[in-house]
Predict the 3D structure of the following.
Amino acid sequence: MTVPAPHPVTGAPAPVPHPAAPAPPAPRTTAGPTATAGPAVAAGPTATAPHVTTAPRTTAGPTATAGPAVAAGPTATAPHPTGVRPAPHPTDRVPRPVPGDPVVRTVDGLVRLVRAGAYGPDPAATRIALAFTTAQAVRHRGRVHGYRNEVLSLRLDAAVGSCAAEPGTLPPSALDDCVGATVAELLGHPLAPVRIAALDAYLAHVRPHAPACGARPHPLPAGDSLTRSRARARAVVDLLPDPPAGPAGRRPVLVVGVVNSLLERLRARGLAYLPCDLKGGTTEWDEPVSTDAAGLLDRCGAVLASGMTLGNGTFQGLLDHAARTGKPLVMFAQTGSAVLPRFLGSGVTAVSAEPYPFFWLDGGPGTLHRYGGPGRPTRHGDRA
């Protein structure tokens, strides 16, 4: 009789027969006498750990099917597109805002979950009481360039959901379509801003921006428009982690949705960037602004993107790229501020959520809500 080897950690004798190395006549006994003696295969905590770096070894030999590690998790059998599996994905360590909430990988998938009642109240039984638009034009003191915004907002109980649209593109009938309609009806509306605003209102209602839902309040000071814009930019940009050492750390940040205060903060941190916006043009420093974010993804080392990508249909491509490559994806969101935290752990690494009323509406103090990122909370509140 062969005596099983002792446990490599505790020194205790291995049980006989061991469930991962059964005695004859189990099928795996034909693998040879070492099949019952290799404690590293069946014993010890690492045997069941679904760490992604073990995935390529699952097809290496006959012992690959003998232990529970083979069946642990979908990544165990999924080869990396390049044939080389990268370091563990940073979003693997990003906690979901509400433990137990479903894993979400697409906007359409999130809509299906909402319709199915995965987050609580039936959206077919919740109605929008108020719909309004906010139009704004700004050029900060001392700045050469300005910009315009138009935002559709929907009120559901105490929550307000919002989605920006290109100025002048929302028809007047959009407001009439929304008032009195159910969330379920608006999730199927032909206009994307209506669909996203309805989804945002519903999620802000059932997952409000509060510590219990993973949010960390971050105060914004009172002041003029430029002072508040710079304070907001610092809160957003500082959700980006410090770049790694080596050549990868010198790759620029892709900024999707150009806000000059964000670029100013990136410059202050010494981070190079690739500005991208559907409007094109130039930055405050006369840098050309690309209109093709997808064409720049392979050149960047991280992505900083506006929630407006939800409304114009470009968010999914950014999310898929971040999930595939492990690059940080930080979202700053007036549009979809309650939608984007649902994607933490699925490609999004941090969110700066700014529900209505937005910082540019007045000069008083305000609050952002931050999720994920390097400034995670301590017992004494938010870090800088």
